[in-house]
Write a structure and sequence with these properties.
alpha/beta; six-stranded antiparallel β-barrel; elongated; five-stranded parallel sheet
Length: about 475
């Protein structure tokens, strides 16, 4: 993946100045490429000194499928009218880097030549005005380009831009449809593709059961060996585990064949399957495949996208569901679990494979992974369809070690506290329409979600240590007013 590095100047300065601008840009690009993720590279384009230069570079950026966005910097003054046509072409994420080649002023020797060459303070304001006048969404990052906080800002932009590019080609499979009579997990699939590029399609469960019937003993044995290397298992009857292994082999073949990056199922539409997919889905999520239960395609797709954004970072990212509370005053905790599908990336220790009856779905007792969750700071992100627009709700949470054992609970469990406190945080989530499904991450934070929301034009509500009930109600009222005004 690449980011184009566009440097603004003008042709009035002469060839010598433009050569210096190009050289300075090359040194900056070489420096930044050493600190960007290995799979993302900055590519310097020729210095933009005329409208034709701008149109050429922006056209190339838009046409290059490997280009996920552009970084723009005005080394000198660059008259912004010459940027209009190119900016009208460009629809990829833009990072306006407001920086300088030099960190400090050469106080003893500074003269007008130096001033004319190094006037980002001048040129970037000109460029910024034109972007604002044209209503162009972009991220502005200010500071010396070698400062750690600026480097981190560039990294975040690159990861978010890559996630947006990944999102634009994401295919999502729904085995069955949305869980009957459930509202918050449903959504406009056509609008999802218009907004995010998600190609979401229904598939009959028969498409999967046909593949399950074709899974051979050697394939199941290979999957069982994978489980043995990852998980503890003391079961004497491995038949339920082998059933899940067959499901995973079939799912992997289906996902590969259909080029699917996220999927959903629903326990109301699993005709022909002996168990609900549990261990199979848990293991696939651990490999970065997005999943949403009960037909929740939005959560499945969002999980796949956020896993892509988080790649290479320490921490865990996957789907979780709000389930039940410990309401001890002042120590309130949420237990996030699911009837089966909790991803083992959240495991504090080595997960155990267990088989237990399931009080829903009418199937045989399924194999699943059981474990206690990790501790640490994280976020919970929910996407909902408000009818006229999508909304992301992002809450800061603090994952905690379960305070007591839960030996009778036959599912994985993750526990957390929501910020700023239980009463305010949960009320804000409910006021905003947040779903009972979310993507939880200890690898990403609210800044990452802000960037993704900005790049995709998605409404964002953030719940954090500064949230108040009055403030969230006022924010939501303003968002609704803006939506009604179009």
């Amino acid at each position: 993946m690449t980011l184009y590095f566009l440097i603004g100047s003008q042709d009035l300065y002469g060839e010598e100045t433009l050569r210096q601008v190009e050289q300075d840009g090359r040194e900056m690009v070489d420096s930044l490429n050493k600190v960007l993720p290995d799979h993302i590279r900055l590519i310097q384009k020729p210095v933009i000194a005329t409208s034709d230069d701008c149109r050429q570079s922006c056209t190339e950026a838009q046409a290059d499928r490997d280009c996920i966005g552009v970084v723009v910097w005005m080394h000198t003054f660059s008259p912004a009218i010459m940027w209009i046509y190119g900016l009208q072409i460009l629809r990829k994420p833009i990072l306006h880097l407001h920086t300088q080649k030099n960190e400090k002023l050469p106080y003893d020797s500074i003269d007008m030549d130096f001033m004319n060459l190094n006037q980002s303070a001048h040129g970037d304001r000109e460029f910024g005005f034109m972007c604002t006048r044209m209503g162009i969404c972009r991220e502005v990052l200010s500071g010396y380009y070698q400062n750690p906080d600026v480097i981190e800002g560039i990294r975040r932009f690159a990861c978010a831009a890559e996630a947006v590019a990944f999102s634009a080609g994401l295919r999502v499979a729904m085995f069955g449809s949305n869980m009957r009579d459930v509202a918050v997990t449903d959504g406009d699939r056509v609008e999802s593709q218009i907004r995010y590029g998600w190609n979401v399609n229904y598939y009959g469960i028969g498409d999967l059961t046909d593949l399950i019937a074709q899974v051979g003993t050697e394939q199941i044995d290979s999957k069982m060996a994978e489980y043995a290397g990852r998980y503890d298992c003391s079961l004497t009857d491995l038949a339920p585990v082998r059933e899940q292994a067959a499901y995973e082999v079939a799912l992997e073949e289906f996902l590969r064949r259909e080029r699917i990056g996220a999927f959903t199922d629903t326990f109301q539409d699993l005709h022909g399957m002996r168990q609900l997919p549990g261990l199979a889905v848990q293991n696939l999520m651990a490999k970065g495949i997005g999943f949403g239960p009960e037909g929740d395609y939005k959560t499945g797709a969002l999980m796949a996208v956020l896993c892509r954004m988080a790649q290479g970072r320490p921490g865990a990212t996957a789907f979780l569901e709000d389930y039940t509370y410990d309401l001890t005053a002042g120590q309130e905790l949420e237990l996030a679990a699911h009837m089966l599908e909790v991803c083992p990336v959240f495991a504090a220790g080595k997960p155990r494979i267990e088989v237990h009856p399931l009080g829903i779905g009418g199937k045989e007792p399924p194999a699943r992974l059981v474990f206690d969750g990790i501790a640490g700071d994280g976020i919970a992100v929910s996407m909902v369809d408000m009818g006229d627009r999508f909304r992301l709700i992002c809450a800061k949470i603090r994952l905690v070690t379960p305070p007591q054992p839960m030996p009778a609970l036959p599912v994985a469990r993750v526990m957390w506290q929501i910020l700023p406190d239980f009463g305010t945080g949960t009320a804000a989530w409910i006021y905003a329409g947040g779903a009972h499904h979310a993507v939880v991450s200890t690898a990403l934070d609210t800044e990452d979600i802000r960037l993704f929301a900005k790049m995709t034009g998605t409404e964002l509500v953030t719940i954090d240590e500064h949230t108040t009930k009055a403030g969230i109600e006022q924010q939501l009222a303003l968002l609704d007013l803006l939506a009604r005004r179009g």
